Amino acid sequence: MDVRAAIALEAGKPLVVDTVQLEGPRDGEVLVEIMATGLCHTDKYTLSGKDPEGLFPSILGHEGAGIVREVGAGVKHLKPGDHVIPLYTPECRECPSCLSRKTNLCTSIRGTQGKGLLPDGTTRFSYKGKPVHHYMGCSTFANFTVMPEIALAKIRHDAPFDKVCYIGCGVTTGIGAVLFTAKVEAGSTVAVFGLGGIGLNVIQGAKMVGASRIIGVDINPEREAMARKFGMTEFVNPKDLGENGDLVGHLIELTGGGADYTFECVGNVSLMRQALESAHRGWGISCVIGVAGAGQEISTRPFQLVTGRRWIGSAFGGARGRTDVPKIVDWYMEGRINIDDLITHEMKLDDINKGFEMMERGEGIRNVVNY
Ligand code: NAD
Ligand code: AHE
Ligand code: ZN
């Protein structure tokens, strides 16, 4: 079938909105009509060419919501008409990782996913007769996509697509890192580095669990007002500390020894170190959420770990998608979490490049394409 898509033809170039061809679902696969998709910083990162798994041409996008239109043979849990959220971290419930109960990182299809292919090793998209790669197993920058059943979370019918699409990445990543990965306790002091689409959800999660102090760190002063609305109690702009400002020293003094939990939500390896070193001696936990470019590495003095700080990381907030995503949709529908204020711009697919330009300028929090 013909579908409308924003194609990443080359690294560092704007997406090209055009008609591409999509083949129907095979065994265990589902055809989904994507109704809305968010633009995540990770899409921008891959488009930039810095992602070692970035492939071109491909159809990016991994933060969507849509409707099942057709199912392939052997599909057990979904039927046409079901509302779904695509999962870049699937949940097969059968692989050693799923069965371990120790991780959300299902391994059943990770190999082919990283090669831009569906589990049978082929692609369903083509453009001008040539194959086009899938992205993170989702490709939500197309109004129809084909995905394996295990990578779709079934959600309630009354949830608005243009809001709950954000649960497909940013909301779950931020809130989940607090609840599922770090397991922050009530009364904790939390420091959040980077107050964008992810960091604001970390703040929202920290407030949900009853953190007493939530310190936000961002170089963009415009982020302060929104972060306070979501529960931030103190704001630190590293630029206000002067050219040789000591951010770590400042945070250690502000917190009386360091934060119980710190979260890096930027993808900057120097900031990851500062986040680790701002965690409390003896028990502080620092969680890396930001994605850094190919070839970048983190470092610290081992003494930082010897003296009891722990460095951890979180993918998709540690959430098990098919199980947890429908619950997070319920939280939104019950008014327990705020998504609406974070979606600052909605646009049509034709304007998707404007959305990436706004992201580049630090304008707004989340852009959503409403098909
Ligand atoms: P974003 O662009 O919306 O927000 C980034 C924020 O960081 C902005 O407010 C910016 O002003 C701030 N910032 C930039 N440099 C800074 C610095 N030196 N110090 C303090 N603040 C700084 O991006 P996002 O969508 O929130 O994504 C954040 C990161 O999380 C990206 O690296 C993205 O790829 C990653 N991510 C990871 C996961 C995961 O599962 N681990 C999921 C989604 C996104
Ligand atoms: N392809 C990159 C890795 C990118 C990455 O870390 N992705 C996160 C999700 S970001 C969503 O916005 C993730 O889930 N990672 C776990 C996984 O299995 O990919 C690279 O550096 O190679
Ligand atoms: Zn994302």
Overall shape: globular
What string gives the helices and strands in order?
A: EEEHEEHHEEEEHHEHEHEHEHEHEHEHE
Structural class: alpha/beta
Give the amount of beta strand, in percent: 15-25%
Total of DSSP H or I helical runs spanning 4+ residues: 12
The number of distinct structural domains comes to: 2
User: What small-molecule ligands were found?
Assistant: nicotinamide-adenine-dinucleotide, ligand AHE, zinc ion
Helix content: 25-40%
CATH topology of the largest domain: Quinone Oxidoreductase, Chain A, domain 1
Query: CATH superfamily of the largest domain, called what?
Result: Medium-chain alcohol dehydrogenases, catalytic domain
Low-confidence stretches: none
**What's the rounded overall pLDDT mean?**
97
Description:
The chain is α/β, with parallel strands linked by helices. It folds into two domains: 2-168 and 339-370, Medium-chain alcohol dehydrogenases, catalytic domain (Quinone Oxidoreductase, Chain A, domain 1, Alpha-Beta Complex), CATH 3.90.180.10; 173-315, NAD(P)-binding Rossmann-like Domain (Rossmann fold). The protein is 26% helix and 23% strand. It contains twelve helices and 17 strands. The strands form three sheets. Strands 3, 4, 5, 8, 9, 16 and 17 form a seven-stranded mixed sheet that branches. A six-stranded parallel sheet has the order 12-11-10-13-14-15, with helices on both faces. Strands 1-2-6-7 form a four-stranded antiparallel sheet, with no helix packed on it. Helix 9 links the parallel strand 13 (261-264) and strand 14 (285-288). Helix 5 crosses helix 6 (199-208). The two termini are 17 Å apart. The relative contact order is 0.16.
